[in-house]
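dumping these here so i dont lose them again. two proteins, back to back, each one seq then structure tokens. dont judge the mess
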Amino acid sequence: MLLNYLYSHFLEESAFAETCGIPLHDLLSLMNRRIFPAPSYIYESNSRSVSFVSDFDEDATYRFHLRGHEAWFDAIRLFGFEKEERARRYFFSRYETAKQTFLTSELGRKLAEIVPDVPEQFNSSHADMTWENFLKGVYGVCTRDGQPESVFLKQAGVMFIEELTSTGPGSLATPELRLLAQAVTLLDRVESEFAPHEALHASRQRCIVDVQSKFLDKAAA
């Protein structure tokens, strides 16, 4: 059920502001100044509650923030970000560190050898898109914690997996299948479960569930 999912992984906006220890209008100001991401889900309620005591009709809008984004607020408070450019520089300092760490790792180097065009896609246009999506709350939907490191690993995982599987099942040699399995495991660690109505259409289905059943289970068999 959608509400169960939202309340398990997210906080309604007023509760999120309270958790951060700031008034709601201050949180809204951070979003307006493009320092803090927008809510990842907006839930419009037109509902009715029936109980022994009283019936209740409600028409309201709820805005849900990823619980993990509290860590981004902590960084804003720690470093005193007042303008977007400083917040963006901090985001990409962490993002770039995650990128270099991954691409110099054994898995990252081997994946880049097989599909060298993926690292080249992390250019300035990609950075602009990443920052805009971060501010829109997109990575609160598709990553577990919404942090810059997870954002990079989610992007890289999807991109490498899509490239590796683009030629279809049966096209990969055993060493490539091993790399594919490691990339799927990496993506599984950082990518969210997605809301019930999104699951079948999300990258988790395409890049983890489908890849495991079409490529990896058959290889294991």
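---- next one ----
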Amino acid sequence: MSEATAGRRFGAGPLSRAAALIYSLLVVEGLFLVTAAPGLVALTLLGRDASNVPLAAACALPLGPALSAALYALRHRSRDLADLHPAAAFWRGYRANVRGVLKIWVPWLAVVAVVGTNLANFAAAGVPGWWAVLLVLVAAAAMLWVANALVITSLFEFRAVDVARLASYVLTRHPKATLANASLLVVAGGATLVATELLPALLASAFAAALLWNSRPVIAEVQEEFTA
């Protein structure tokens, strides 16, 4: 089937493009849930107790590679409406990036677990109130940093140390992207508090698409300035 024939058969208008995007999001969401299922199931079994913060961090281990694969699949989504293979792109990204992502994801989870444990036991620690504010700021900065790191390591091939440096560099280099990602994290956090911890996971492909959209200037600069 020629490209012109395929275009006439499947359509090339906004409705067809929207349908293709929705299809890709649904497929990627399903695969994200499959690959993240061990951690998500374990998270649902944990109670909201301060002592479970380290366990919750351990349960979140599968989420990093799964989110990275979602980013890769959506970034490499075919614009040809007759050639949509989001599942193949997801698994290709998962296999290619799992080791690199874990080198970033595991240290980040360790930091978040330490900060979360301190905040959960803040009253018993007897430290000044400003210390809690500092910990919250550290946690927020870490989350914005890991968002950049996930995008970079999912789409490019760099050493983990270089990903870490680039993720820190673009935080201040692209303040609009950082602010947009902060808004995205607020929405995800609000959804967790209002509904359930699983709601952000059920919307993971939409969040990944939004993260890619916010990170366009970051992706463009990394591609132009730091790749051959």
